[in-house]
Structures
1.
Amino acid sequence: MPAAPPRVLAAAALAACAVLPAAPAGASEAPVCSSTKHPVLAKRLGHRIANALKGRTGTESVAVYDRKRGLRCGVLAGRHYDSASVVKATVLAALLRSAAEEHRQLSAAEEDLATKMITRSDNRAASALWRTVGRARLARFLKRAGMAHTTLDPAGHWGLTQITAADQITLLRRLTAHNRLLTDDARAYELDLMHQVMPSQRWGTTAGTPAGVTWHVKNGWLPRHGKDWRVHSIGAFTGHGGNYLIAVLTQGTPTMAYGVGTIERVARAVHGDLAPGTRASVPGGLPDGAAETSDGSVPAGT
């Protein structure tokens, strides 16, 4: 496994503390942001997230965590969604945990598959690593990670893993802080791959990332039966004063671009409040002329 680049080590500034509380499905859609240290900021950010979601088509779940400020936000953070390709971040984390339990490094073949799975969202690589880890070890990883509301698809389709925004924040917290589940080298390795995502897949929670802050992202985009898009983005933002996490999951958007737009409205609101006064280095949006095609995480017709 390659050594972690210096930019990733800044992620260790976050601590692995308690899991972000999940708002139950069906709860009020008004965002709930709290911070005993910064109540005014929490209130303002809550309003900005609400405005970002106002009038949008579909269903959205949002979870935000900023340890330095002791700030948490959640909008329907306990609602379940088909994971699409977002689950690939969990698959890699489970593989890294499995390798550590076996007291070994990833093989060259596993590293090649991991790189393709995260940076290009390659589905064949994801399926191969899904089989390598196996259902039992994946389930054990979820339990040990504290991702209690994430469930594997009974039919074995990894893209239909049921996820919540709150559990995605839990995963990101395990990746961005020293903890007993993942070694520091393993965390740095996965975060580095999440920073190397190909340009056409850098939309979503990265939109509006302040200059000097390092982003780490994994996205998913899946229409079921040719319509009704699920568009998701999870991101960790580290270094130079930026140590916060964002998860936005959406369903029922009319197009992929519309779902991306919803996520990026929320992302810009969060970046604007948690890193104010800094120039945005990531514009966001799908590349011009990008085709609205599924990420392929679920076989057609499933």
2.
Amino acid sequence: MEVLPLFRRCGTGPTEGSVRRIQMLDRSDWLLITDPAAGVTVTIADMLVLAEDVHAFEDENDMVRRVTSGPGATTPYDWEGMNVALIRRIHDDGLPATQAELIAEMQDWFADQSDGERIPDSRTIRRRITPVWKALRREGE
């Protein structure tokens, strides 16, 4: 609570604050800072959050992690698997009448693969399917 004003979203908070107590990683109790008596002055740049705490928070609040580009990018969704399912669906049955139907089928595929726990929203799937949809619709015209 001592440094919470540093994290105001609107940017109107102070640029530094004083920490008067700390908690060691391996302890559950708080230690009071008595020297200096006013506590230790810190800025936002001094604040760190452990990656494991960020991931736990995201999991607890059902948040999607940011996807980074390049090798080793992490995402909670099996996009490569979806691409294979998409190709097989189009190869075996052709395109459905609407893109919305195809998106719904891919959401069903994600639900089947993750026991209904990890299903991207339709907008996210649409962004990945639209280039394929447009290219195939153009060829069919």
